[in-house]
Design a protein that fits this description.
2 domains, 9 strands, 4-stranded mixed β-sheet, alpha+beta, single chain, Signal recognition particle alu RNA binding heterodimer, srp9/1, 2,3-Dihydroxybiphenyl 1,2-Dioxygenase, domain 1, 3 helices, about 160 residues
C-alpha cells in the first residue's frame, strides 16, 4: 500500500467579523493577499507553501479557546528580540499570557523536549496570534516559563 508523507501545514482558518478591517490588520504584518472575495481572504504565510484564510462570519462570537481561534506564525530567532517593538510600531498591543507581563515578552515556553520563544497578540476579533521561534529540540528537564532575556542569560552563563 502507498504512503503519503505529510510535508507541513498548508492552511489554517480564522473567523472575522469585518473582512475589510481584518485585511488591513494582516497587511500590517506584511502578509500578502493570495485570494479575496466578499466573504473570504487568504494571506500567504509562505508563498506557494502555506496560507491563512480569514472568513467573514458571525461565528466570531464563539468564546476564544486555543484549539479553535489560535494561529502561531514562525519567525527566525534573530527577529524575536525586535518583534515586540515591530508590533508596537504598527499599533499592535502585546497580550499578557502565561503570567508574564508585556515587559517579560518575548517569553520562552518549556514544552519538553522543545523550548521555543514566543510573543502573543490579538487580531481585531480577538483571535490569538503568536510569533514563535524554536530554541532547542533536545532539552531535558523542566525549567518553567521565563522571558527570552532570562533564557539567554541562563544559557550563556553556562557556556
Amino acid at each position: 500500500m502507498g504512503r503519503a508523507k505529510i510535508k507541513g501545514l498548508y492552511e489554517a482558518h480564522l473567523p472575522v467579523s469585518n473582512l475589510e478591517n481584518s485585511i488591513k490588520f494582516y497587511k500590517k504584518l506584511d502578509l500578502e493577499i493570495a485570494y479575496q472575495n466578499d466573504k473570504l481572504a487568504f494571506f500567504w504565510i509562505e508563498k506557494g507553501k502555506s496560507w491563512l484564510g480569514l472568513w467573514k462570519t458571525n461565528h466570531v462570537e464563539i468564546p476564544y479557546h486555543p484549539s479553535i481561534r489560535h494561529v502561531a506564525l514562525q519567525i527566525d530567532i534573530e527577529d524575536m528580540t525586535s518583534a515586540k517593538d515591530w508590533l508596537n510600531s504598527k499599533g499592535i498591543e502585546i497580550r499578557t499570557t502565561f503570567d508574564l507581563t508585556e515587559e517579560q515578552q518575548p517569553l520562552v515556553l518549556d514544552n519538553n523536549p522543545q523550548a521555543h520563544a514566543a510573543i502573543y497578540f490579538d487580531d481585531p476579533d480577538g483571535n490569538a496570534l503568536e510569533l514563535v521561534a524554536p530554541l532547542r529540540l533536545d532539552f531535558e528537564g523542566y525549567f518553567g516559563d521565563m522571558s527570552l532575556e532570562d533564557w539567554y542569560r541562563r544559557n550563556t552563563a553556562h557556556n
